[in-house]
Amino acid sequence: MDLASVVGLVVSVGVVLSGMIMGGDLGAFWDPPSVLIVLAGTLGAVMAANPIERSKNFPSVLKQVFISKKIDSISLIKTLVSFAEKARREGLLALEEDASQLDDEFMRKSIQLVVDGTDPELVKSILDTEIGFLEERHSSNKNYLDSIAELGPAFGMLGTLIGLIQMLGNLSDPDALGPGMAVALVTTFYGSVLANMVSLPLGKKLAQNSSGEIMYRSLMMEGILSIQAGENPRIVEEKLRVFLPPKERKKLDEGKEEA
C-alpha cells in the first residue's frame, strides 16, 4: 500500500471539507444534477475518446496507484553481481537453473536469451522493445487520467452554463437568483475537484511509478548485457551503481562491509 497517495488524498479532501464546513452550510455544495453532469458526462466523454478495453482496465490502473510494486535496486544489483561471478566461474549455461527460479518474468526471459547464446545485439533489441512497450502502456494509462483532468472542468463549466440559462429564465423571481447562481457554480466546483484533487495527482503518481519501473528494467538490462559480455563482476557492479542515488550507493557499500 502506497501510504503517500492515501495520506495525500485524505489530507486534501479533509482540508476542502473543513473549509466548506467552516464557511457555512455543507448542504449548499450538494446538487445531484450537477454530480450527474460532471461525473457521468466526463466518464462518457473519456470512454468515447479511448478504446473500450482501456476503460475496462481503468480500475486496475487505479489499483496500481495505491498498490505499486516495491522497487529494490540494491537487491537487484547484488543478484546481478552474483550471476556475473557465477558466469565467470562456471560459464553462462550455469545460470539456466537460476533463471528458472526467478519470479520476475522480464529478468527470467533475459537470462534465458543469454543462456541460449542469442546474439548480444539481438538481446539488446528485444529488451529495448520490451521496455518501450511497457513505457507505452504506462503512458496510455496516464493519458486516461489526464483526459479526466481535462474534461472534468469542461463539464463543470457546461453545467454552470446550464444553470445560468435556467436562472435567467427565472429573472421575474428575484428570490430565485441567489440559489440559482449557487447551483450553477457548484458544477464548476465539482469539475475542479475531480481534476485537481483526484485525476492530476493520481496521474502524476502513475508517471513517477512508471519512471521508477523503467529505470529498474534498464538497470536489469545493463547488468544482463554485461554478464553476457563476460565482464568482471566488480566492473558490472560499478556500471550498475550509476543507476542508484547517492544515499542508496552508501547502503550498497555498507552491505558489502557487513558481508
3D architecture notes:
The chain has 259 residues and is an all-alpha fold. The chain has a domain at 29-72 and 123-258. The chain has helices at residues 3-23, 32-49, 52-56, 58-66, 73-90, 96-100, 105-115, 120-168, 177-228, 233-241, 246-258. Helix 2 (32-49) runs antiparallel to helix 8 (120-168), helix 8 runs antiparallel to helix 9 and helix 9 packs antiparallel against helix 10. The protein is elongated and about 90 Å long.
Fold blueprint:
Layout: H1 3-23, H2 32-49, H3 52-56, H4 58-66, H5 73-90, H6 96-100, H7 105-115, H8 120-168, H9 177-228, H10 233-241, H11 246-258
Helix pairs in contact: 1-9, 2-8, 2-9, 5-9, 5-10, 7-8, 7-9, 8-9, 9-10
Global outline: elongated
Mean pLDDT: 87
Give the biggest beta sheet.
none
Instruction: Give the CA-CA distance, first to last residue.
Output: 31 Å
Order of helices and strands: HHHHHHHHHHH
